Sequence to fold (315 residues):
Amino acid sequence: MSELVTGEAVALELRPAKLPSRALAVLIDLAVAFAVYIAVTMAFAAATASLDDAAVAAVAVATFLLVLVGIPIAVETLSHGRSLGKLACGLRVVRDDGGPIRFRHALVRGAVGVVEILMTFGVVACIASLVSARGRRVGDVFAGTLVVRERVPTGQSAFVPPPPPWLVGRFAELDLSAVPEGLWLAVRQYLTRMGQLDPQVGWGMAERLAGELAAHTGAPVPSDIPPAAFLAAVTHERQSREAQRAFGASAAGGQAASTVAGAAPGSFSGYGEAAGPVPPVVPAAPPAPASGPAGNPPTGSGSSDGPATGFVPPA
Fold:
């Protein structure tokens, strides 16, 4: 298993693709590419029959670079790392931090792939993939990418417990822009494993992480909130902001409501007890009846038989 971290501090526990699945994906891509290359070459040969040898050679080189190098780079860029072969095998190319690849990543992979796959018939790529612990070829090393398996059981993903309901939205004004990604990853790993830790060790770790988080946000940890609950609430707030930026305010509100409503019973019990009691919610008192001390209508009412209407009859 390889833990990749996205920009939202979500660790994706995906399996790096090994040599057999990658080789099958490459064979599918090469079969399609060579079929397109032969068709385009035959079409250009018929169209350039009247040209001289130099022009025909230039067209042949341009066709080779366009079909076998340019098109795969464009496909990986537009599909965010999923070519036809990778789509069939359930693979995807991602960055080292788990994010989607861009044009420069696909360009480096494609340029190095000409040497290690096409010119050496895949020998260099196979050796590099066997030597690498995560199955990376030379192009992945230079581009800073990794091929991972997308089709993994959903039960293997770690569950981050939601914060207590009374903390949802409390840190809406907190500035989280200066918190580094490494700290978000450490907080998330603690929240997913705090039930497996010794209570004293877990409490000390939560206090340390909460102190580091407070140092980066510029606001101290509230004394009435356990450190673990503070970490969960701030992490939930950051994820809500990311959802709001991506999908709008309605999606962020729906995510917050579904997170708390869908929490399993007892999922809030691992945060410890707050230093002070949580103030109960007092329902609003019903409005007082519009009457005097003895049930009489208030002074100034137009009639004792009913409420005043503001209409004064003529004298």
Notes: Residues 19-47 form the longest helix (29 residues). The CA atoms of residues 1 and 113 lie 26 Å apart. Confidence is low (pLDDT under 50) at residues 1-11, 262-267, 273-287, 290-315.
